Amino acid sequence: RAAMKSLRFISAEAFVSNAEFARKSLGGVAHNLFPLLFKASYLLEQGEVIHDLVENWPLVDFNMGKLLGTTVDYQEDLSHRTCSVCLESCLTGLRDYVLNHPSPYVKRLKVVDLTGIKDVEVQFCECKKTMGRWARTEMLSKLCLELLVYLQQTQCNPGTFEISIDVLIDLFVTERNYELVVQALLKKRYCPLKICCVAFRSDNLALQKFFYIIKLTDPTLLRKLEIVHNVRLEMEHLEILFNSIHFPLLMSLTLPARTFNVRRFTATDERMLTNIGEKMSEMTQLTELSMSFSILTGRIQKLLSPLKTPLKMLDVSNCSLNRADMAYLANSFHANHLEALDLSGHNIPDLYPSIFFKLLSHSSSVLRSLTLEDCNIQDTHVSMLILGLSPCQKLQEFKFLGNPLSSQALKHLFTFLCELPMLKNVEFPVPRDCYPNGITYPIDDASLCGFDQQKYESVAADLNLILLQANREDVKASTPLFGSYDAAVQETNNELGAYLIKSFKETLEKFTTSLNKMS
Predict the structure, then answer these.
(1) What is the DSSP letter of 83?
(2) pTM for this structure?
(3) N or C: which end of the chain has fewer CB within 10 A?
């Protein structure tokens, strides 16, 4: 359903739709109309008008999230449109704001906030070309360096060097853009546009480079740190990181797979784990923690009990948690505050059903997102699951891919899910009866696509009909076979693939060398 537009917004659209006229007329536009014209230009993808609006921005701040979000004149949120034409025009307009203004002394802009831009799977912009987080990182770094070169080579108004604008951004650094970003951060103090890193994500990066660049970002400002794919961070490195760098404002921490492995624990490792827990307790803002695919059996309490602030988001998927870990979570002060919980990869029905339901009941008043993928939930467990989910009236998202459920059990579950008033997104498994007899769970990648497509589509249609008949068209139900969409992976998948092939080649070479030595 299309959002209503005010008369003011319709007029703004008419004004910016003629780019040549709009650009000539900007000098006579009242300052308080710039935000309105910006959103209208963004909706119509009028790149040249966007550029000129930013180049002549008359206000103290420029906040993309607020400008594109829900406004009185047009309630539709455009912050998830990462349109390449629009974003490139914004950034070049920002560069030209520094360079081309006739009188730098009347410049008021102090803060540009680019952190409100959301990367999503489906784009609604006409050009269909996106500028993701990695590309925004690269372009802003390039512009800052180009700006410095230009200012050094050209006779500029002395006032230009007095301009200082903080540009808040979520940086995304990989091997491919590392050198560029490092140069931009090293020269930050000389550049009128100051890169201020609020969130930092690192993929495909050597550990040494990660340690170097994270210090350049000014970690005291960092609110979110994501160390995700192909950064070989292990527990000893994490201890060094926390001992050498303070993150006083950090709210969200994502660690790569296999950061922890308690199967080979020594006394030194125990000491290290204790130290990491204590260092995390100094991060008084930390409320989101993701450490999937680590082996943490029996050590969750040691890691989480020192925290002074309750966690709102916890991802311990595929962490080999035992009964004691689950009991700690269910009884800890975190349980009553958990808004998002991922326990995928644990055999909940067999190992600790009653403790899991206790955890669910403690978090039910605030829980918004629950992920239980590959948890061995079978038809016989559905009634119990419904009982456990019933108090979770704020649940917006429920993901349970990879569980051996029949189409009949899924229909039973969907009938109940219609009753959760806030639910918006459901990710459900391919029904067990769509696979050949004898399929074993968890299903390996080779067999994942070997199901009866026609039968699956028929069941999916039945499930959507259940939603439709309950007037729940607002719920999106899907089966993303290879996991949920990750904008960052999507944007850098070529580099990720190349890195994996390189790692595989190195492993094979080491293996061959070892064999040759043996023979």
Answers:
(1) B
(2) 0.92
(3) N
Task: Write out the two tokens for 89.
Answer: 């025009």
Structure token digits, residue 317: 């998927």
* Number of continuous H segments (helices) and E segments (strands) in the chain: 21, 13
* Residues 6+ positions from 367 with CB-CB distance below 8 Å: 338, 339, 340, 341, 360, 392, 394, 395
Model confidence at 416: pLDDT above 70:
yes
Q: What is the DSSP string of 321-384?
A: --HHHHHHHHHSTTGGG-SEEE-TTS-HHHH-HHHHHHHHHHHTTT--EEE-TTS---GGGHHH
What are the structure tokens assigned to 46, written together?
């009028």
Nearest-angstrom CA–CA distance, 495 and 176:
8
For the chain, helix, strand, coil in percent to 5 are 50, 10, 40
For the stretch 279-332, pLDDT in tens is 999 999 999 999 999 999 999 999 999 999 999 999 999 999 999 999 999 999
Mind listing the pLDDT tens digit for each residue in 76-128? 999 999 999 999 999 999 999 998 766 544 778 999 999 999 988 777 777 77
- The residue behind tokens 């955890």 is 359
